[in-house]
Write a structure and sequence with these properties.
The chain has 21 helices and no strands. By secondary structure, the chain is mostly helical.
Length: about 475
């Protein structure tokens, strides 16, 4: 889908010279909200509100969502919302990062892998144009305001501000509850933070405007030509013997590895214990990540090979499809072996953030391999780019919804009941998401595991930092 499909007009004819006044107002409010709600305070509902204001600014700037834009935008909003649900930052930050990617896809929905690259590059490229664009737009707005409009507005603000100050003082002195509520609404300003406020304001405004321009302006022609040249291999069309030879050699290597792994998969602990000088840690840590990388590289090899294969004739295409299918299947077995290695390590030493994240990443790679197999079998691959993006977003949402730190704490408690072993120092470093599980520990151990978390939760937070995970933990620990 081209940029014209996003806005409903030819992007070449609607390249904005200046931003609409409503956009300037909306993006300014978004920047102020970002500075007020994100600086020097825990992440919470303020992140969701800032993202919502940024989305409104894009709408005010002329962006018209439809079709895939709505799908990607909705998934992005869902990922941003986890900032108000989960207290674990290592869970929230990847969601926020991918939400930015989804925002790029929303303003310029991709229809192919080359479109994915263009969608990702769009905001980065347009970020260089944002300063001049904003200054030009602000100058046009100020020039367009007549004195007869600006003067009454200024007087209205002054009179309104004075009236609000007088009546607020009366209401606050008459009702202590209203006073306390007002204190929560009004930030406790620390003037030493002003550089961070300014930097956050500029960052939020610049990022929002970069996405605004990426959706309104056509993709630069010279970069499009470079992408086309890379995609077509610079005119090089590989022959059948080249692809068959390369893919056959790679398949033979995978086959040799899979044959060895087949024994390991079913040998389990006894095999490891009989292996000289090989511990659980060495077996898992020295093997898992290499196997995970091999699965990821397989995806890249299959994607590039399939891009070339689509230009082959009927017989060549059949051969290449078969070789790529075998490669995907064996890569899938390699991933199963990798996850098995990690499971053995987890059984011996318990769950951690890194191990659970690695598990999830391995399952995601497996899901993408399945999509590639389906695309190769059906000879239809244009849906792969969008489907992979949606799969990734749904995987992140599922991972967040499972409460990873609650799972880590729960699995370690189950291991403690079976073996009597538990790593209290590690569990005490978890976030409020783990409190419901940690609260089930015996009294002395419970105190040790929750001491650090309880101290962290005892600190006051403004309303913009509201977070369901932390609030739930406060309730269980009876923290006001």
């Amino acid at each position: 889908m081209q940029a014209s499909a996003i806005s409903g007009k030819d992007p070449q004819s609607e390249a904005p010279a200046v931003a609409p006044p409503l956009y300037l107002v909306a993006v300014t409010i978004t920047g102020i909200a970002g500075a007020a709600w994100l600086v020097d305070r825990p992440l919470g509902v303020g992140v969701v509100l800032v993202a919502s204001l940024a989305a409104f600014a894009l709408l005010a700037g002329g962006f018209t969502p439809r079709g895939w834009s709505i799908v990607f935008g909705a998934l992005g909003v869902a990922l941003v919302s986890t900032a108000a649900l989960r207290a674990a930052l290592w869970v929230v930050f990847p969601n926020l990062a991918f939400a930015l990617i989804l925002a790029a896809f929303a303003v310029r929905p991709p229809a192919s892998w080359s479109d994915v690259l263009k969608s990702l590059l769009g905001p980065a490229i347009r970020s260089f144009s944002t300063p001049a664009y904003l200054f030009r737009s602000a100058g046009a707005l100020v020039h367009g305001l007549k004195t007869k409009t600006l003067a009454p507005l200024t007087r209205g603000l002054v009179i309104g501000g004075a009236l609000v100050a007088v009546f607020w003082a009366l209401f606050a002195s008459a009702d202590r509850a209203f006073l306390e509520f007002s204190k929560r609404l009004i930030p406790d300003w620390d003037l030493g933070l002003w550089p961070f406020w300014v930097a956050t304001f500029v960052f939020v405004v610049a990022v929002t405007t970069a996405f605004h321009l990426a959706g309104r302006l056509p993709f630069p022609g010279f970069l499009q030509a470079m992408i086309d040249q890379v995609q077509t291999g610079g005119g090089w069309r590989p022959r059948k013997v080249e692809w068959v030879t390369a893919l056959t050699l790679l398949n033979l290597l995978f086959l040799a590895f899979v044959t060895v792994q087949a024994l390991v998969l079913f040998a389990g602990h006894d095999h490891i214990l009989r292996t000289a000088n090989l511990s659980y840690a060495e077996y898992a840590r020295e093997g898992f990540f290499q196997l995970l990388v091999s699965g990821t590289l397989t995806i890249a090899v299959v994607a590039v090979s399939w891009n070339r294969a689509e230009r082959a004739n009927g017989n060549d295409l059949t051969v290449i499809r078969g070789l790529l299918g075998v490669l995907c299947l064996m890569a899938f077995v390699v991933l199963v072996s990798a996850i098995r290695r990690l499971s053995l390590y987890e059984e011996a030493f318990g769950f951690t953030r890194l191990r659970l994240s690695a598990h999830a990443l391995g399952l995601w790679v497996g899901g993408v391999l399945i999509l590639l197999l389906i695309g190769g079998a059906t000879l239809r691959t244009r849906w792969l780019a969008r489907t992979t993006v949606i799969l990734t977003a749904c995987a992140l949402l599922l991972f967040s919804g499972m409460n990873p730190e609650g799972m880590i704490a729960g699995r370690n408690l189950a291991r403690f009941k079976e073996t009597g072993k538990i790593d209290l120092p590690y569990l005490s470093g978890l976030s409020g998401d783990a409190v419901p599980e940690l609260a089930r520990l015996p009294a002395p151990m419970k105190t040790a595991a929750l001491a650090g978390i309880e101290q962290e939760l005892s600190r006051g937070e403004p309303w913009s930092s509201f977070n369901l995970g932390r609030e739930r933990a406060r309730g269980l620990l009876s923290i006001p």
